[in-house]
Specification:
The protein is α/β, with parallel strands linked by helices and 536 residues long. The chain is 40% helix and 17% strand. It contains 18 helices and 20 strands. It has helices at residues 16-46, 105-123, 133-142, 160-177, 206-210, 228-237, 278-290, 325-337, 351-356, 370-379, 391-398, 417-423, 443-451, 457-470, 475-488, 498-507, 514-523, 526-531, and strands at residues 52-56, 61-67, 84-85, 96-102, 126-130, 151-154, 184-187, 199-201, 216-219, 243-247, 252-256, 262-266, 301-303, 309-313, 341-345, 363-365, 384-388, 403-407, 435-439, 533-535. The strands form 4 sheets. The chain has an 8-stranded mixed beta sheet with strand order 5-12-11-10-9-6-7-8, with helices on both faces. It starts with 15 loop residues before the first helix and ends with a strand.
Length: 536
């Protein structure tokens, strides 16, 4: 998952005055409203065995408090779009690392104003503020015929998994704009890793290739807070006289012509990834452009036939998400004992790990990238993948291979809705793909469940009907429906228990935005998801 890389001391192209405004906002809130609260939280922290406390002050403001001597296993800058961080304050709170994170409208407003001013100054662009999504889509469709030469999708993500997930923006918008797949090109720094049916190139070739095609559409997805610099560089590298840029999640598209450049902005609050699943977040972000309703769950999930050939990926770019050598060895030995053929990823330069993995009769799979790995998984007829929450899990699930995704319970804050949505089983484990989320202690039970799913048509219908009732219902109703499902299906929770996962959140809920998180967790119930598989 993409994490924030810039902070407010970096150069995002925003004027010093704008920086001052943002720092002023932070300082004012921090000094006047939070100092006393933070001191109280530190006193509470001293009385517990925890290493951290997380304060979700509002959608806009988040504060993390960490014992400065401890490694940050849990990532506390939760939420999506991922927030910008102020400087850590060690002056007021000696011995504790306190970080203030700010996101949403205070940051977006500054970035939007800078962008509009830049376009008006350099392109004499006319600003059109639109107040309804219907009118916004009419303007978008009105430009389709003019800007339909080519479609270029620019991936700004730092993590491969995000890049794979983000392709949904291209697929949905391409269909809306009625641009054939053969006229679409993807640019990504992870081009050698992304398995896609589109033509794909490294991002470094963007300017050279794009600037040969007038009247093209350029899609830059998400544009999360900390990617503003990258977006500006893309914009400034284009020398075309006639082109269009579409920016999902910013409710924004731009048209550039020799005599008439325009900014179209649908004036509504940008979407935050707070308690939505990643699927629903993307659906909402796309809704302004496509007009399609939010999807809940597909009736069936198409999956490759499950075989006795199992591939294990114990690695992740983040150490806290990886599978230990001992745990990996136990998984391998259990699978081998039960007649499975086990293939293990050799990773990228993971020789030391592989040497410690002293298990006989396993096959190591070396690869030169995700594309190469995907071909080898197909060649070896892999029918099940066990993986960390990583790019490989998103890749194999996208290929239609049943993928058990392992989440370590120490890696998220169980009291935080945003942390559960962001770093736990409720958010990034995609409901419409064959990703089966498992808390780290239940991997072997999950394997058994996949090969012997036990859910009747009546039970599936009950869950599907309850999920629909949850959507948009009051918190009281949602929690009542949640408890009803827990009581009806106790035998389905051996390695993934929605009630345990949500217990602290429900008990500490401020009664806002809880229904979507509860619904997301139930959508990913492994037994329910596995029972919806259609094998191809």
């Amino acid at each position: 998952m993409t994490r924030f890389t810039n902070n407010l001391t970096g150069d995002m192209g925003i004027s010093k005055e704008s920086y001052s405004k943002l720092f002023g906002y932070l300082s004012e809130v921090f000094a006047q409203k939070l100092k006393k609260t933070i001191l109280n939280e530190i006193n509470k922290l001293r009385e517990t065995n925890k290493d951290y406390r997380l304060l979700e002050v509002s959608d806009t403001l988040i504060v993390s408090i960490f014992k400065s001597t401890k490694r940050e296993a849990v990532r506390l800058c939760v939420g999506y779009p991922f927030p910008l961080a102020s400087k850590q304050s060690r002056i007021f709170f000696s011995g504790y690392k306190v970080s203030v994170f700010i996101r949403d409208e205070p940051v977006r407003k500054l970035q939007r104003e800078y962008l509009f001013n830049y376009l008006q100054k350099n392109y004499s662009a006319k600003l059109n503020i639109i107040h309804s999504t219907g009118d916004f889509r009419k303007n978008l469709s009105g430009t389709n015929r003019k800007f339909n030469n080519r479609c270029f999708y620019v991936d700004l993500y730092d993590f491969i998994g995000d890049s794979i997930i983000g392709l949904k923006f291209l697929e949905s918008l391409r269909k809306t704009l009625r641009i054939p797949k053969t006229r679409c090109t993807v640019f990504s720094k992870h081009s050698k890793h992304i398995p896609t049916q589109y033509a794909i190139f490294n991002s470094t070739k963007f300017a050279n290739l794009v600037n040969n095609y007038e009247y093209s559409t350029i899609i830059v997805p998400a544009l999360i807070d900390n990617q503003f610099d990258a977006f500006l560089k893309i914009l400034k590298s284009i020398t075309l006289k006639n082109f269009r840029i579409i920016v999902p999640s910013r409710n924004l598209f731009l048209t550039f012509s020799e005599n008439n450049s325009e900014i179209f902005w649908c004036k509504s609050r940008d979407v935050l990834f707070k308690t939505n699943s990643i699927d629903n977040y993307m659906d909402i972000a796309l809704n302004t452009f496509t007009g399609e309703p939010i999807s809940v769950l597909p009736k069936t999930i198409k999956v490759r036939k499950i075989t006795k050939n199992v591939f294990i990926n114990p690695f992740s770019s983040l150490e806290g998400k990886s599978i230990s050598v001992d745990d990996c060895s136990k998984i391998c030995e259990h699978l081998l004992y039960n007649g499975f053929n086990v293939f293990v990823s050799a990773g990228f330069h993971q020789e030391e790990y592989i040497q410690k993995l002293k298990v006989k009769n396993i096959t190591l799979l070396y690869d030169s990238g995700f594309k190469d790995l995907s071909e080898k998984l197909t060649a070896h007829n892999i029918g099940l993948v066990i993986s960390t929450d990583s790019g490989i899990a998103h890749m194999t699930a996208t290929l239609g291979i049943a993928t058990i995704v392992i989440y370590h319970s120490f890696f998220w804050d169980s009291c935080s809705k945003q942390s559960i949505s962001n770093d736990a089983l409720g958010g990034f484990c995609r409901a419409h793909l064959p990703m089966i989320p498992v808390v780290n202690s239940g991997i072997l039970d999950a394997v058994e469940n996949i090969y012997h799913p036990a859910m009747t048509y009546k039970q599936k219908k009950c869950i599907r009907r309850t999920l629909k009732r949850m959507q948009g219902a009051s918190n009281k109703t949602v929690f009542s429906l949640h408890k009803d499902l827990v009581s009806k299906f106790p035998h389905l929770h051996t390695f993934y228990c929605p009630d345990m996962l949500l217990k602290n959140v429900i008990n500490n809920s401020n009664k806002t935005d809880s229904w979507s998180l509860v619904s997301n967790v139930w959508q990913n119930l492994p037994a329910y998801k596995v029972s919806n598989f259609t094998f191809v």
